[in-house]
Input
Amino acid sequence: MKRWRHLALVVVLCAAGCSSSNPTEPGPGPGTGDEHEPNDFAAQPLGALSSTDIVVHGSTATGSDVDLFSVTAGAAVNLFANLAWSTSSFLELTLSNQNGTFVRNLGGANPETCTLSLPAGTYTVRVGTLTDGATNYTLTLGQR
Ligand SMILES: [Ca+2]
Output
């Protein structure tokens, strides 16, 4: 159900004038794949955490680009997050819970890695950049 609400929001945003070249494309769905714009306001759903890591290849296009992803933990979990990139840019990784409360905010090191003991729920992972330039990154999410 939640997924459809996200999709409805994306459709509404696109109808309101977002600049995606293919606004009706619903995205690649759960699992391993590519980051899919628009994801600056509505998180791209990556599905449920499992024993297989979710690996996303994405890019921060400019200093104002933000990439949001959501993952679901069906039970209490040790959530592992890793953000790696290959340039001298300064990327940041933020995790928040479904209430919008920051759980963790990382910045500086490359790769940025954390493992957090969290209750069941849906978590939003935000990838941002403090460098005004395109940077490719790899985001890995899993349970440990
Ligand atoms: Ca984005």
